[in-house]
Amino acid sequence: MKWIFITTLCITLFGVHVMAAVMLAKIRQIAKNRFFRMAFYLIISDACLMIEYVWLTIIMNTNDLGIDGPHQDHCLVLGHLCPAAIQCSLLMTFCMCLHRLNATFTAPKRVLKMLTSNIAIGLGFVFIHVYVLLRCVLELLDELALLPCEPLYNTQKNFLLFIDGPNAIFVLLIACCYIVVIWRMRMNRHLVNETESLSKLQIQQRRKASLRMRYNLITLSCIIVVTACSILPRTLYGLYINVNDNINGEINRATNNLLLLNPLVDPFIYILRIKEIRCQFVCKCFHSNKITPPTQPATDATSASMSSNLKPPKTSSTTSRTNQLS
To answer: What is its main location (predicted)?
Structure first.
């Protein structure tokens, strides 16, 4: 059945996320590199989404959707936690854009540094979950609300505005920040090429930093493209439903399944784009089991040859003794 396939896929993706998170955590630069640390947080957020989606899929396919019961409460909570995990992923992507923007300045801006700090990320995580769970509590107290396990529950206008509205704002902020980062990078590259007062070493250091910045920006570009392809169809269709009351079940189901595209592709982006993770992945998957020959005999042969070289040649000693006798 389809839901068993989706469950198996999500569990497999969860394993891939855990593997990518472990590889990223083993990188030495993660303590100093904020970009790697934010990528780690993004992987954790996507992994949580996989578990929540699996739980929701199992409940909706093993219970009667039209009958009230404890499973309806599970659907209600998970129906809000999944969008919260998606919004946390969007928050992390936006923070990564802000971090790249701050790297384009010669002197890092204090405001941008504060917005991308661990405290700000933690507060954003808490705020998103409080914002989502508050509506969940209000739904639990509302006896006239639709049954949460029904497929049409997440097509209500108030639910769409509550979830898809913030998602649209996040996507807009990410796009604007990304455009500013690209513009500033072009300006900085133009200034580096025209600089004459700097020494060759300073110019070389700036060019290396620019190349490293460009490499991270390509990784961020892949993440943003996947995020847009994953979030925008659901967001645009949700806003369309709010204008026109025409709901197509097939389109709604397709846009909901597209939300899995982001956690599906993100770990592979990190494995392919981040050199340190790629090296760990190759070493683990293609590790050679060849046994290297012992080096001790070679060492003994070397020492023997060195000692033989230190000994005086026999021919010379024999010649000297013959000369003395004569």
So the answer is: membrane
Q: pTM for the complete prediction? A: 0.75
Nearest CA-CA partner of 59 in 82, 41, 85, 33: 82
Q: Please name the residues in contact with 57: beta carbons below 8 A apart, sequence gap of 6 or more.
A: 3, 6, 7, 10
Quote the number of domains for the chain.
Answer: 1
Whether residue 310 is contained in a domain is answered as: no
Task: Output the domain CATH number for residue 233.
Answer: 1.20.1070.10
Distance CA 45, CA 84 (A): 10
Residue span of the structural domain in which 253 resides: 2-285
Summarised one tens digit per residue, pLDDT across range 40-95 is 888 888 888 888 888 888 888 888 877 888 888 888 898 889 889 889 988 988 88
Instruction: Give the residues of the chain that fall short of pLDDT 50.
Output: 288-326
